[in-house]
Amino acid sequence: MYVAPPDFHLLVNGHHIHLWHGPKENHHRPAINPLFRSVATTYGRSAVGVVLSGTLDDGSAGLWWIKRYGGIAVVQDPNDALAPEMPSNALKHVDADYVLPADTLGRKLQMIVEELRDGDSSTDKSENL
């Protein structure tokens, strides 16, 4: 697991992780949108973005980029979230592949990663746990 230090965005480029002191997004640095954009452009159809409980709309634009590049969008069910604003905003702007309660996300992510690793392009994105 990698955690961005204060005042730096975390970006992915190939097999490298970069710290970037670029402009704040949603009044924050680090923010999730720059990370999601970098993951989308680097990994395309193999990218997976997850938006969990939180306030404001951080993650919505980045998750849109992941979908644009053919990746998978996973959003915590807003009815299950302690702070439903981030997942609700993501769902307003992105056609999520999975909308799940927190207690099933780990198992679903494991399944998605295994399918991507095995090269299974028949992932049934309509399935919910």
Biggest sheet overview? 3 strands, parallel
Mean pLDDT: 92
Distance between the termini: 25 Å
Q: Percent of residues in beta strands?
A: 15-25%
Give the H and E element order.
EEHEHEHEH
Supply the helix-strand structural class.
Answer: alpha/beta
- How many individual domains? 1
Known CATH architecture: 3-Layer(aba) Sandwich
Task: Determine the number of helices (DSSP H or I, runs of at least 4 residues).
Answer: 4
**Main CATH class:** Alpha Beta
Description:
The chain is of the alpha/beta class. It has one domain: Rossmann fold. It is 36% helix and 17% strand. The protein is built from 4 helices and 5 strands, in the order ββαβαβαβα. It has helices spanning 32-43, 60-68, 85-93, 102-117; strands at residues 9-13, 16-20, 48-51, 72-76, 98-100. The strands form 2 sheets. A 3-stranded parallel β-sheet has the order 3-4-5, with helices on both faces. The chain has a two-stranded antiparallel ribbon with strand order 1-2. α1 runs parallel beside α2 (60-68) and α2 (60-68) runs parallel beside α3 (85-93). The protein is globular. Residues 122-129 have low confidence and may be disordered.
Give a short summary of the structure.
By secondary structure, the protein is α/β, with parallel strands linked by helices. It has helices spanning 32-43, 60-68, 85-93, 102-117, and strands at residues 9-13, 16-20, 48-51, 72-76, 98-100. Helix 2 links the parallel strand 3 (48-51) and strand 4.
Describe the SSE topology.
Blueprint: E1 9-13, E2 16-20, H1 32-43, E3 48-51, H2 60-68, E4 72-76, H3 85-93, E5 98-100, H4 102-117
Parallel strand pairs: 3-4, 4-5
Antiparallel strand pairs: 1-2
